């Protein structure tokens, strides 16, 4: 359900703690020039960084926005390292005007230095940290693509990054999560009896790695082989485990119906084959029509009939929906590391 900006801000205030005095002082002492310098190092253009910087003083003079920013910075820093803390999934604040569109740039600029220190201490390679921090630029590019305006798309996605539990290695995002506990854990999943029979790695509370797929990322088998190899090496050092650990993914990309439309050697079908797709829970699968249309077209508000049919995937989406079918967001797992 889409909420208004005022409703979303109210949800944010209810979830976040009172801002710490240190955070308030940090906001007061941070200059627009410092914000611009940081966002440029994160990959924003000079013009984009100037927009963020030039709005900072007016933003900071608005007590409503300043207190909200300070509360969310405090929330990130209190939860950093706590992978069981709920990930707050909120609507974006675009309807709140320019301050709403730029809000997440300020959150990122204030929190990311602490995240970089946290990941460095956790033995995350500098190259992986640098790649992970490109998330701000990527979400900004996606916002421009969808809405033709400057902002951050799905700003809540920054929270697991800023909390230090989600990193990008190669072409994929890897997210540290305890099964059945973390907000982004696969659902549906095996019930307690099924998980007990399957053993370590499948049970509620067992450590796992969530796999997420960035927009426009490389999914060819060679790139993914290298991604998983590096991911296992990096995560074994950062987040070691003694037992079997699964990687899970829940995505429309795991819907086996795609195999009826895409070539056997297509990248998406090859990606599916890496996972044990859980295909016998049809009544509990999430409807993925909106997800697949959103990912493949990024054109909100456009009727399906007016969307392009330029790629094999786009034609598959059209054909399947026109036949009265539905796409599903399905869970799958693979052995990641451990014994």
Tally of domains: 2
What fraction, in percent, of the residue positions are helical?
40-55%
Beta-strand portion reads 5-15%
Count the DSSP helices. Answer: 14
Low-confidence stretches: none
Helix-strand makeup class = alpha+beta
Question: What top-tier CATH class of the largest domain fits best?
Answer: Alpha Beta
Largest sheet: 7 strands, mixed
Instruction: Note the run of SSEs as H and E.
Output: HHHHHHHHHEEHEHEHEEHHE
- Summarize model confidence as the mean pLDDT: 95
Here the CATH topology of the largest domain equals Aminopeptidase
Shape: globular
CATH architecture of the largest domain: 3-Layer(aba) Sandwich
Describe this structure in words.
The structure is a single chain. This protein has 339 residues and is an alpha+beta fold. It has two domains: 5-160, no CATH class; 172-337, Aminopeptidase, CATH 3.40.630.120. Helices cover 48% and strands 11% of the residues. The protein contains 14 helices and seven strands. Strands 1, 2, 3, 4, 5, 6 and 7 form a seven-stranded mixed β-sheet that branches. Helix 1 crosses helix 5. The protein is globular, with a radius of gyration of 21 Å. The protein starts with a helix and ends with a strand.
């Amino acid at each position: 359900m889409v909420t208004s900006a005022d409703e979303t801000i109210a949800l944010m205030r209810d979830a976040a703690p009172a801002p710490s005095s240190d955070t308030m002082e940090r906001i007061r002492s941070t200059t627009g020039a410092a914000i611009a310098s940081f966002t440029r190092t994160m990959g924003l253009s000079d013009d984009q960084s100037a927009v963020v910087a030039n709005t900072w003083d007016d933003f900071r003079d608005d007590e409503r926005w300043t207190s909200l920013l300070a509360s969310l910075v405090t929330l990130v820093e209190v939860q950093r390292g706590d992978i069981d803390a709920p990930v707050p999934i909120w609507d974006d604040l675009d309807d709140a005007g320019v301050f709403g569109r730029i809000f997440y740039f300020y959150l990122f600029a204030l929190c990311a230095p602490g995240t970089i220190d946290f990941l460095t201490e956790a033995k995350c390679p500098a190259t992986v940290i640098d790649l992970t921090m490109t998330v701000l630029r990527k979400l900004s590019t996606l916002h421009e693509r969808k809405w033709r305006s400057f902002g951050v798309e799905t700003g809540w996605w920054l929270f697991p990054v800023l909390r230090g539990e989600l990193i990008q290695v190669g072409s994929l995002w890897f997210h540290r999560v305890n099964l059945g506990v973390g907000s982004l854990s696969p659902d549906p999943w095996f019930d307690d009896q099924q998980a007990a029979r399957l053993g370590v790695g499948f049970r509620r509370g067992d450590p796992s790695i969530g796999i997420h797929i960035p927009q426009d990322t490389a999914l060819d088998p060679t790139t993914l082989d290298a991604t998983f190899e590096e991911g296992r090496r990096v995560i074994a050092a950062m987040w070691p485990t003694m037992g079997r650990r699964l990687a899970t993914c829940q995505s429309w990309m795991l819907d086996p119906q795609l195999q009826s439309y895409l070539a056997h050697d297509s990248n998406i079908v090859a990606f599916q084959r890496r996972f044990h797709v859980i295909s016998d829970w049809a009544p509990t699968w999430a409807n993925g029509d909106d997800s697949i249309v959103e990912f493949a077209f990024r054109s909100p508000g456009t009727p399906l009939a007016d969307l392009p049919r330029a790629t094999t995937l786009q034609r598959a989406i059209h054909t399947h929906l026109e036949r009265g079918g539905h796409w599903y967001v399905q869970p799958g797992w693979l052995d990641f590391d451990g014994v």
